[in-house]
Amino acid sequence: MVEARLRVIYGDTDQMGVVYYANYFRYFEFARSEYFRAKGGSYSELERSGTQLPVAEASCQYRAPARYEDLIVIRVTVSELRRASIVFTYELFRDGEPRTLLCTGRTLHACVGRDGKPVRMPEAIVRLLKPSEPEPGSSTST
Length: 142
Prior knowledge:
This protein is of the alpha+beta class and 142 residues long. It has helices at 23-38, 43-48, 123-129; strands at 2-7, 55-62, 71-81, 85-94, 100-110.
């Protein structure tokens, strides 16, 4: 699990003064990029190697609104790592005591080559992204 932090800017809010619902997916993307960095890689390195991870599915369950200038903490985890796909899960909180859960989410990414066709996840990416503490008996490349 990696935590990323950001402060809500005015442009992310709607007429009601809360973060516009679609912006949470941008926050997910930000957290994924931070996950790569925290693990010692970057998404641009992945693309240079000829592999891409487009979003195939995305979902978000909203719990409470985020507002302008809130400090947001985004927890991101790789919950599934398969031969040709990966699932990230997210928890977004308003920072403070106590932390307020704003939403949870999930994105499924296909592993594709430059031609857009599915490819096996490169071993270097599997090593980079695999959860730090896999459950006994589980495999990160199935």
